[in-house]
Model the fold of this input.
Amino acid sequence: MANQKELIEVNNMKCSFTLEEWKCPEPTWTESGKYCIFHDPSLKKDIELFKQKLEEKLEKKDYNFKGYYFPEVLNFVNKEFEEDVNFEEATFENANFYGATFQNANFSGVTFEKIANFVEVTFQKNAYFWEATFQDAGFEGASFQEDAGFVYATFQNANFRGATFQYTEFSVVTFENADFEGATFQEEVDFVDATFKIANFRGASFGCVDFMGASFQEGADFEGATFESADFEKASFHEDAKFIGATFKIANFEGATFHYVRLKGTTFEKIVE
Done:
């Protein structure tokens, strides 16, 4: 009797998933008839087959995961991705990257040596990238629908433009170049003791944000940003800090230090002393 995993692949039919000009080359499998095991959005798909096929890709250093549906906790602990990684428009039902999280996928201590593409990725549950290392991280338009954690992570280039967050932790994170322009932080976000060489938060929207002890080494741009509650206690701005046109409901700058700050058009409802 043939092995079940051999039977469920329909090798003469290709997956119908496409993204822009790219078409998935994987075969369909019988439970779908339309998608491969990776692109099938069904929560009832064969998890063991998914893991088996994913491991085969990883062994070949094939890191193209465009549009994949990751169904459960996956373990990428201490994984090193030596080449570009592409998760564009992927969906993680639960992701944990302890160093990174997908419904929970574990990327603890993961290292992305080149490009890590998470553009427009959806994290339906928790997403943790604790102690992860990124060279060029693209999270533009990503949606974090539950908790997200990047504590102790390191970024050379971080693009979170237009991303949407719920409760998020960026404590003790190091950024060479951080771009959060137009990002939305709907609940609490924690940048305590984070270090920024260059920080762009133009037009970002914050619920409750904590930058206590954060260090902005070269440039910090918060032009047009809105804050429900912002804590910059003991933050240090070593170069130009722009808050032009920003709006604060509650702001705390106790013990913060500035080299040069621009506040034209900034409005404050309440400043905590």
